Amino acid sequence: MPTMNIIEAVRDALRMQMRADKRVVVLGEDVGKFGGVFRATSGLFDEFGGERVIDTPLAEAGIIGTAIGMALYGLRPVPEIQFGDFIFPAFDQIVNELAKFRYRSGGQYPCPVVIRTPVGGGIRGGHYHSQSPETLFIHTPGLKVVAPSNPYDAKGLLLACMRQNDPVLFMEPKRIYRASKGEVPEGDYVLEIGKASVTREGSQVTLLAWSGMVSIADETAKQAEAAGISVEVVDLRTLMPFDIDTILTSVKKTGRCVIVHEAPRTCGFGAELIASIQERAMEYLEAPIMRVTGFDTPFPYSLEHEYMPNPDRVLGAIRQTLEW
Amino acid sequence: MPTMNIIEAVRDALRMQMRADKRVVVLGEDVGKFGGVFRATSGLFDEFGGERVIDTPLAEAGIIGTAIGMALYGLRPVPEIQFGDFIFPAFDQIVNELAKFRYRSGGQYPCPVVIRTPVGGGIRGGHYHSQSPETLFIHTPGLKVVAPSNPYDAKGLLLACMRQNDPVLFMEPKRIYRASKGEVPEGDYVLEIGKASVTREGSQVTLLAWSGMVSIADETAKQAEAAGISVEVVDLRTLMPFDIDTILTSVKKTGRCVIVHEAPRTCGFGAELIASIQERAMEYLEAPIMRVTGFDTPFPYSLEHEYMPNPDRVLGAIRQTLEW
Amino acid sequence: MVAISQYGAPGEPDDLRRVLDDDGKPLPGVKVPSIPEATLTRIFEVMLLTRIMDDRMMRLQRQGRLGFYMKSIGEEASHFAVAPLRNGDWIFPSYREQGAWFWRGYTVQNFIDQLFGNEDDPIKGRQMPVHHSANWLNLVSISSPVGTQIPQAVGAAYAAKVMGKDDVSMVYFGEGTSSTGEFHVGMNFAGVWKAPCVFICRNNGWAISVPSTTQTAAKTFASKAVGYGMPGIRVDGNDLLAVWQVASEAIERARAGEGPTLIEALTYRVQGHSSSDDPSVYRDPKEPEIWEKKDPLNRLRGYLRHKGMWNEARETELSAQYNQEITDALAASDGKHAPPIESIFDDVYEELPWNLREQREYLMAQARSKNPHHHG
Amino acid sequence: MVAISQYGAPGEPDDLRRVLDDDGKPLPGVKVPSIPEATLTRIFEVMLLTRIMDDRMMRLQRQGRLGFYMKSIGEEASHFAVAPLRNGDWIFPSYREQGAWFWRGYTVQNFIDQLFGNEDDPIKGRQMPVHHSANWLNLVSISSPVGTQIPQAVGAAYAAKVMGKDDVSMVYFGEGTSSTGEFHVGMNFAGVWKAPCVFICRNNGWAISVPSTTQTAAKTFASKAVGYGMPGIRVDGNDLLAVWQVASEAIERARAGEGPTLIEALTYRVQGHSSSDDPSVYRDPKEPEIWEKKDPLNRLRGYLRHKGMWNEARETELSAQYNQEITDALAASDGKHAPPIESIFDDVYEELPWNLREQREYLMAQARSKNPHHHG
Ligand SMILES: Cc1ncc(C[n+]2csc(CCOP(=O)(O)OP(=O)(O)O)c2C)c(N)n1
Ligand SMILES: Cc1ncc(C[n+]2csc(CCOP(=O)(O)OP(=O)(O)O)c2C)c(N)n1
Ligand SMILES: [Mg+2]
Ligand SMILES: [Mg+2]
Asked: Could you confirm whether B129 is annotated as catalytic?
């Protein structure tokens, strides 16, 4: 099996699906000849031509708006938003149109658009190249939200997204785009949307993480183990619909839970996880569920490492929950 | 003291502040001669003229974008977004610009813009005249979010918002715009932003609500009392920063809590309240905190009454939490 | 009043394409488009149906029997820019082109079921009245947020091109909507892509209470085409023959791969914005009076009669027939239920995820407990 | 290559306003604007500083000592549309007008402290390099999302009018940014409000890898002004005298209450989009070569020398001085700390709400436990 990083895995999925299905088109800023500012679409322009790998004018509302029209007519567009931070000019098209099209038309007009966008901090990007906007989309009925943390999941999930019929926000962890490497099957495979993966088994506390934070959770779990604490790590992979069963199974087993996310704390997805867990498994909880998150500030530049969750902070929360 | 409905209270606050402070301007679609589709700005055009009561072209991004520029230069704009559902074309200006201006300029450029917008369902408005988007803004650091439920609070809070220096989303409960009536002082008064109000004292369970749902909570509390259940109702009034102290005091007293909101359940503000409470008062909780919310669907038309929380459902949750 | 001078009374600017005068007589020296008689009379019939429907529904609304309605009275000719389209072509409407729906074959019953959001509503009671959707007619679901349909239409047009089809997209919006960012990005993408798309800006002078002079400082809405490298045509939107003519040309250009066109159809919103509106608060009642003299139905009727294609008897009979159809459809609708409660959860996704399954169970249990006879 | 023909090599369209030829000689028959010698030489000096700064910072970036940088080489003349402004006028910049900052009095040390986000950074290390803010100079905080500053500038211009001041707003953006919805709504509001606002579209041919021909099908960016009812002027953006001239005219119109102007300054992004970019992947290296012959510094230098206002000795001396200033500022910056950790929570709101107070305590406790000597 070849080794790939996340960028390569994404590109591999796109190429594979574009070969298999002529209806798939890629569009966005700089995705054509240049192959995307992160090079995720590199080579696609040469292989599939400018009609299917489209450099658009600079307008996210246009990228998503036209992608919707393409999907209605019968294409399977996979627009790229250059940074998650630049998705907001398209917000109306996403939350009022894309998410609601099937519903508002009584099922007449499904709208299978897969929006790819890099998210998260840690690349010295300041507030406009670092945000993690998942909450906004999870809170929008009609969208699926997928957030892989490694190359294998990225390829299998992206292929799955391009083959189902609902709109998806596919968030890619840009900090580890190249750093995260792993074996990825050359051929075709899909991972089920909506299934978390237990990336490490443990007995004392459950760590819930996704996207760029899974590596922080893993790192923490290792340090915890060294300190004699057994940690189970669950990589959610899909945030909407999230895998409540896997989460509950783990939390019921460990009785303790810490959630890690980069987005600001207040109304972050961590809050929903806490709410959903306590509603269903309060009697199993030995301590409050803790959150290690970004702060309720815009994402800073000079102090980004102070802002982002790190193993130290996660370990602190684990100890707190154990000592509660 | 005169009796006013919410529309009149809002108008009274606007008029009072426009008289007191020449820097205050109102802008939006149909706010001028017409006085707004809900008539909140009625009469202001005649009194203050078209330069300060501005009918804009049809573009929410322009309304908020220009309001930001006005605030930077020294005005105190109070833009109206005709329906909360139409705020999304301005989403980038709100979350990436308005909310971050002070921070990103190191404090050089405060941006005191108060965005007024009607929210909530129950007026047979379907998905585009009924949404409750508070989560999206509470999750955006830099914004304050205020959501009064009655005329007295509406006036006192709107005056407070127009006199402080941070951007505010001021959500008005359109379903009860006219139905909610009460005594409102003629003169000047402000209510503190960030303070909840205990609208009914009780001992067995705490009901948390805001905006249009406070009346549902009150109604439920009455029914509960008739059934021998003592319910405390807390009207949050400000959602960011929310009044954690008042909430905790009540929940520690009652040991049980039900949250009511219209917005879709998943990642609604109820989730944050649950998370914040269980982090700080888990040992006081006798049962999981329950949520009675809108469903995870777009807001429907024909079945809107099935969609919205009602006293029946809230009472059901109260019983559930008592029987847990 | 500000708005009047811009709307051609008394002296329209030269660049306004017209065929008929206000009485329906062809203007001297103007070529009358050759439209088959059957087509032309059919257009008139559908215009008549539209007018009757608007009238009936508004009365129903005033009686408190219908929640909300939006009329298009005085703007009907502009709806028939769709008439020269083929059935395979796609239409992205705004909320004020009833005629386009009936033209394509949307029935009176469809229309009324949607208004009442009942169990037979093609969209299952999901949206407010007048937000139709008919995928079997290539008529795309109407949205309330204005302008969003514009880039969508461009995307569909582009898709047709990529898929090797020669379908054209036509998209409608009001002049107020030309102020949105969506208008700009849609027009701009269309220009760059040379998308087979026809943009119809229904300039009816008003956006709720805001006159068109507050929407732009440009001389005309058609002139905005310059900024997108496409032709901009201004047509008398109350003149069916002129509308047909400019639409046909634009559709042919699009189909031939020559790119998009912006058409400004100059018309007038004779009545309130919607059933919730009261225009007397913000405009001079004399303004609509001027425009009533340019009524599109009258003008086409005049032309047809003059050509011997139409007569009063036929109109009386047809009006009675349409009125009866509406009465029957209303009666049928009266007997229909609301959509089933559980349908609230359908179509959010292709399949119900666990959270919606759970919420459905909860709601159905609640419904059963309130009404033990309900079988959900 | 697609882009070349549009950018005037070899034959510019007639409507391009120019004063100087490529060597800095006034074109025959063109009126040279009368600019005081001190002003003109000062502009050249600031252009020189800008060029030197770009060069030094880019080298620093290549050495790995600076995270990110964006050059404006070859576009400097376009920055000086701000020169005819008064100090009370407001500037809403994009990220590529370094010259405008230095012109207003932003110091080399300010600039470098911002790039390093250190404790003396005027914005407290909050944003990426090149996102300056200087309220004491009426230079508004730069944002990464492109185009957002356009309606903001219009709002400020409107505010000046309402407050009875005759200040003008000037706003910069790239030609790629003209595709955004923000451009449209900003231009449109300005037209309707007759706002005292000057729009400078820096058309440098590229938006990262995307040529300007993919941004619009319009013949020129200036032509977009038609759709907003304002004048659109196309100027040779590498010709300082022409830029001064058209900017002066637009500023005067704005100040006199005659409304906004769109200026398209035709120039060229000679190098990569930013330090992260590699243009060889997407464009012909011959294209920048053609434009190097039109270098704005060379052209102004040529003019000044020809007029006896400038000489090599003065330039050599000044270059040395600027280089030294930069070296000193870098050295000073080297000794500076990052902003204090607790400052992460400041300026989100005027006062810290409880959630931020709590989070600050948490972070400071953590910082103390890791570094007991830190007094937060
Ligand atoms: C994005 C958005 N903002 C505001 C509204 C509220 N609104 C509904 S119709 C309308 C006026 C539209 O005017 P125009 O485009 O001229 O169309 P017309 O109603 O005249 O046909 C407004 C402001 C909306 N539907 N969508
Ligand atoms: C809303 C938004 N989308 C995408 C980007 C990413 N981006 C940064 S600069 C740029 C190109 C801008 O081109 P142009 O406006 O021509 O300015 P130039 O860089 O040429 O000066 C893009 C796409 C962004 N900053 N903001
Ligand atoms: Mg209109
Ligand atoms: Mg450019």
From this structure: yes
